Predict the 3D structure of the following.
Amino acid sequence: MTLPLVKPALLVAVLFRCLDALRMFDLPYILIGAQKGSVETLSMLAQNEASNVRFGPASAYAVLLFLYVFLIALAFVRLLGADLVGDAGATKKSGSRRAREVTA
């Protein structure tokens, strides 16, 4: 088994684990408790603001969390460069068709 064959599966597994760690809410909230500034995550801040009926800051925290997770996922996929969609074969086929049309 070689790394190029395992790369897409490994990318998806590690990406999901990283995104779950970024969106973590339950463990710090249960183990440490609410209103502890040293372990507050963005999810905890959004929940705290929403429970205090301040929906503006709560939605801002949620949007920031979404953007943060999106940018991390995008950078992760771009840097590792795994072909998750499988479009590489389609571009090769269309390129060879163009080469045949030019020579004919």
In short: The radius of gyration is 22 Å.
